[in-house]
Design goal:
alpha+beta, six-stranded antiparallel beta sheet, two-stranded antiparallel sheet, 8 strands
């Protein structure tokens, strides 16, 4: 079963179209929601096996896909792969208004006019803050990670506007 999971993950990674330019590597645990991670059977790997798989991906995948996964793929949405203009640059802005954390489905409006939706089931609660700074970084396989200034936590997000 583990071999099947490893082969499936490798085939998925290799089936993506090569894009221009490498991005910082982000592990499967960071890239996938908890549900996707479990559905792929990766939760059954030992930490050593998971590290081996991540290392294999790290050394062989140095690109960003320019299209979404095929139907029935790993759940990546084409509208989350690129911004409206295709720009994959790091975004630095502030949250427009109050912020008290996130959970899956939370919509975060930025002062730069962008709206991002939390796509992971992780929850994060903080005391209410007014317009904290945020950084949204592009990651491998077309996803984005949002981090709030002053906290060492990040969450996967999709741009919705």
């Amino acid at each position: 079963m583990r071999l099947l999971v490893l082969v499936a993950a490798a085939c998925f990674a290799l089936s993506l179209s090569r894009g221009a330019g490498a991005q910082e590597f982000s592990s499967l645990e960071e890239r996938m929601s908890d549900a996707e991670f479990r559905a792929a059977g990766l939760d059954r790997l030992t930490p050593e096996e998971l590290e081996q798989l991540n290392q294999w991906l790290r050394t062989r995948i140095g690109y960003i896909p320019t299209t979404a996964a095929p139907a029935g793929g790993m759940g990546f949405k084409s509208d989350s792969l690129l911004g409206d203009d295709g720009d994959r640059s790091e975004i630095v802005s502030r949250i427009d208004g109050e912020f008290d954390g996130w959970s899956e489905g939370t919509v975060i409006k930025l002062e730069n006019g962008q709206w991002w939706e939390v796509s992971e089931s992780r929850e994060f609660d903080v005391a209410v803050m007014q317009s904290p700074g945020v950084t949204i970084k592009p990651k491998l396989l077309g996803s984005w990670l949002l981090q709030v200034e002053g906290y060492n936590r990040s969450v996967r997000v999709n741009r919705i506007r």
